[in-house]
Specification:
This protein has 17 helices and twelve strands. A hairpin with an 8-residue loop joins strand 2 (107-109) and strand 3 (118-122). It starts with 11 loop residues before the first helix and ends with a helix. Helix content is 44%, strand content 16%. By secondary structure, it is of the alpha+beta class. The strands form two sheets. The chain has a ten-stranded antiparallel sheet with strand order 2-3-4-5-1-6-11-10-9-8, with helices on both faces. Helix 2 (30-37) packs across helix 3 (41-48) and helix 2 (30-37) packs across helix 4.
């Protein structure tokens, strides 16, 4: 009980027992629950003692109150996908301006996606390139430029975390990246604004049931449910809107996804209930909506206002009330907490994660450490150099070479000279 606050046991008496245990563990009083829920203390006492029926609304309010009182109801936000295009073919200038690292730190690959012909890569940073097309006879300049794909930067979730490693060292922020893109006349093609729910403010299976039962208001024309058996550890996902539209939202159980992606043996995986992020709510903006979303972030510097302005415009989950028509149903208490009631203001966070060799070391320990140990022992006994020969025969991939350069230069070797000069001057 002390690890989580899901409190979703369908047996009311058991749920109330858990609530009482959790309340006592944190020193929460009935009066504090009353003040936070808006109920009278006598009513709280009657609920806990089982003298009053525990309704779904009362359960939700008590759950929210416990989250508020134990400081486990807060959320944070991050950029989880970013794509921007430029008409320019000057990739070096784009890299220097936006990433502020040396272009030579990128290596070349002669293939790419989305109609681009080749790309430059530095760790998880990807810059896709194209050849400028020849202008056809009689073709207008507008049509010619439209065929020109120019240059594109694409960052996945890992790419965003990788970039944040540089931004942290450069004392820059995502706002600086957005401004640099605008100064180069970039067109924002997609941005994913992700809200991390680390303690289960939302209950995804519960939201899915509300969606199935039409207990919501929405401007979206449709949605999809991906529901799985929890024993198969695939999690649940609710998609709102079309992927082809300018605004698309996805709500899913991030803890299951994190568990699946951990590249270790089953017995060494961090248990699902101990994964750092429980749920993830993504607002995905494309084309004009991406442009307007980033413009709103720059003008307000208030991710709370921007993200929940979009969410509240498109979706709201409700609590059914028999005596009222649907248009007068109240907002679901847990949803109310998610969109801003009884929680701290949402902040745009960074989680720098440099490209490292932790996964490689872990794989060696689990898969081949005994074989390596055998070779070392036999080499010593026989006077041979088998392990050295195996290592010498190995060929490093471009990404492995990139990793070596990062550790060799401690990242500073990648920064532009003018940044290093400014840093040195500020230290003096």
């Amino acid at each position: 009980m002390q690890k989580d606050l899901t409190l979703v046991n369908p047996q009311n008496y058991s749920w109330l027992d858990e609530l009482e245990e959790f309340k006592d563990a944190y020193g929460i009083t009935q009066q504090q629950l009353a003040d936070t829920t808006g109920y009278r203390r006598e009513y709280i006492n009657a609920l806990i003692k089982g003298r009053k029926q525990l309704t779904a609304q009362a359960k939700a309010k008590l759950t929210t109150a416990m989250r508020v009182l134990t400081k486990r109801n807060n959320l944070d936000c991050c950029i989880d996908y970013f794509r921007v295009t430029f008409k320019s073919h000057d990739a070096e200038s784009i890299i220097q301006k936006i990433f502020q690292i040396r272009p030579e730190h990128f290596y070349h690959e002669d293939w790419a996606f989305y109609g681009y012909t080749h790309k430059l890569i530095c760790g998880e940073l990807t810059v896709m390139l194209s050849q400028q097309p020849e202008r056809r006879h009689g073709e207008s300049e507008e049509a010619w430029l439209k065929r020109d794909k120019g240059t594109m930067i694409e960052l996945s979730g890992k790419g965003c975390r990788y970039l944040e490693n540089y931004l942290s060292g450069q004392k820059r922020s995502w706002y600086d990246v957005f401004i640099a893109c605008q100064e180069l006349h970039g067109r924002f093609k997609r941005i994913d604004l992700a809200i991390n729910d680390r303690h289960g403010v939302l209950d995804i299976p519960e939201l899915i049931e509300k969606y199935r039962n039409d207990e919501y208001r929405s401007r979206f024309k449709g949605g999809k449910i991906h529901r799985s058996d929890r024993d198969h550890k695939e999690g649940n996902t609710l998609e709102l809107g079309s992927r082809q539209s300018g605004v698309h939202m996805v709500i899913y159980e991030k803890d299951f996804e994190q568990w699946q992606k951990q590249n270790v043996l089953l017995e060494d995986k961090l248990p699902i209930e101990e994964q750092p992020i429980k749920n993830r709510f993504e607002v995905r903006l494309t084309d004009e909506r991406a442009d307007s979303g980033i413009e709103a972030l720059l003008s307000t510097r208030d991710p709370e206002k921007v993200i929940f302005g979009i969410i509240n415009h498109y979706i709201c989950f409700l609590t059914p009330t028999k005596s009222k028509s649907k248009q007068n149903w109240p907002i679901d208490p847990r949803w109310a907490t998610f969109i801003g009631a009884n929680r701290d203001k949402l902040s745009l966070t960074v989680d720098p994660q440099p490209f490292d060799f932790t996964t490689t070391v872990g794989w060696l320990k689990k898969q081949v450490s005994s074989s390596l140990k055998l070779i070392v022992i036999l080499d010593e006994m026989l006077g041979t150099h088998t392990l050295d020969e195996i290592i010498d025969a190995g060929k490093l991939s471009p990404r492995q070479i990139d990793l070596i350069q990062h550790y060799q230069n401690c990242n500073c070797g990648a920064y532009l000279d003018d940044f290093e000069a400014k840093e040195k001057q500020s230290n003096e």
